Amino acid sequence: MFRYVHTNIIAKDARKLIEFYKTVVKCKSINETRDLRGVWLDRLTGINKAHISGEHLLLPGYGEDHPTLEIFSYDVLKEALVPEINRPGIAHIAFEVDDVETTLKEIINAGGARIGELVTAAYPNGQEAVFIYAQDPEGNIIELQSWIDIESNS
Question: pLDDT at residue 78 above 80?
């Protein structure tokens, strides 16, 4: 078997970020909270006396238990690089929404921010997409997108 299971975000304030993703991004609690420590975790992470806590949230639009967004926090955090859209590594998580502008306002009202401009792009398959990049309250980058079939709306 090979299947996608989750994406993990390490938060400065896991409870606050969990609430943001539940409220604004419509992720759902599936009662999978974690409070992990022990020799096995030290060995897995390579961190002595590691302690992580947080929760798995069900991503919107999928099954009843997966895939999830795992939001954890360590007792000891390293200083983070400022997330940038062109930094190597995982750059952003994307969500398809009904209304990009409304969702962006919700993100900003919840402590997030906007990156760049809202754009509309025509695709050769007869669809048009509206895109914007935003940041959650801790600076993680979120792409919002909405698609319409322009050929059937003509």
Answer: yes
